[in-house]
Amino acid sequence: MRKEPKEVAQERRQQAASANASAKLQQLDKADEKTKMKGKNRPSRRAARRKGALRNIVDEGTMQQRQKAENAERRNSEAAQQSLEDVPRALHRFYKKTVI
User: Fold this and answer.
1) Which of 1, 23, 43, 82 is the one with CA 20 to 30 A from 57?
2) pLDDT tens-digit series, residues 8-54
3) Is 24 part of any domain?
């Protein structure tokens, strides 16, 4: 087996490096094209927006739901306070403590 001269080996290395660099640039360009649509404009997000899932509209139904939730929470906290006073001290750890 013969050894190649240093100049020939060096040329081959340079050619391989330039080919790798150009392939790398092509991959980066391709990746930039692919990531362009990520985020707000991706198809599933766009479809959800059209359907109305992402709209920030407060209508009568949502207001009623919020009020019901608040009333239920208030009733539960009042009931917990009343029952906490009626229960022996040893059972207090089983009840929610309200922060005042």
Assistant:
1) 43
2) 889 999 999 988 888 888 888 877 766 555 566 677 777 877 777 65
3) yes
Is 43 contained in some domain?
A: no
pLDDT band at residue 77 using 50, 70 and 90 as cut-offs: confident
Burial 9-22 (b: 16+ CB within 10 A, else e): eeeeeeeeeeeeee
Residues 6 or more apart in contact with residue 12 via CB below 8 angstroms: 4
SS3 assignment, position 81: helix
pLDDT for position 90: 86
pTM for the structure as a whole: 0.29
Segments forming the whole domain that contains residue 100: 61-100
Question: What is the rounded CA–CA span in Å between residue 23 and residue 57?
Answer: 49
Domain co-membership, 30 together with 65: no
Are residues 48 and 54 in contact, defined by beta-carbon separation less than 8 angstroms?
A: yes
- The answer to the question of residue 48 being in a domain is no
**Cβ atoms within 10 Å of 84's Cβ, excluding its own:** 15
